[in-house]
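Let's practice the habit of predicting before peeking. Look at the sequence and jot down your guess about where helices and strands might fall. Then scroll down.
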Amino acid sequence: MQLSLVSEMPELEKKIFLDIYAKVYFDTRRNRPRLKTLEGQTIPCDLKIGCPAKMISEFPEGTIYKLDARLIQKNGRRPYFLTINKNKVQRAIEFFDHNLQIQKGLKLEQKAKKIKFEKIKKVKEPNKVLEEISFF
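Done guessing? Here is the structure:
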């Protein structure tokens, strides 16, 4: 048996994480809204977060929240977070425009606009031949 001195996921060495951003999604298996971490943070994305459903069911799916959480890993299962300071679970001000669009029911995913580029025709210049060649 060989022991590794390097941790496979050094970002999970801490136990309590502050100011985590998470997005609400609807879990069809449990038939209730749940939270999942966002990409671009110092923690892995797509980790599930345990939070009371009544705290996050007030706003629609896709709303982004900011919260504090404790990392839990039991019996070799995939790690997950549990919210601490449940009264401080709040919609993220940093994603105000995103949350506002979700609450108003506007489309977030817009189709990419097609851009037409003008083709520039290259004009060929006639080849110039030097008639005088001198050797030294």
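How did you do? DSSP finds two helices and six strands in the chain.
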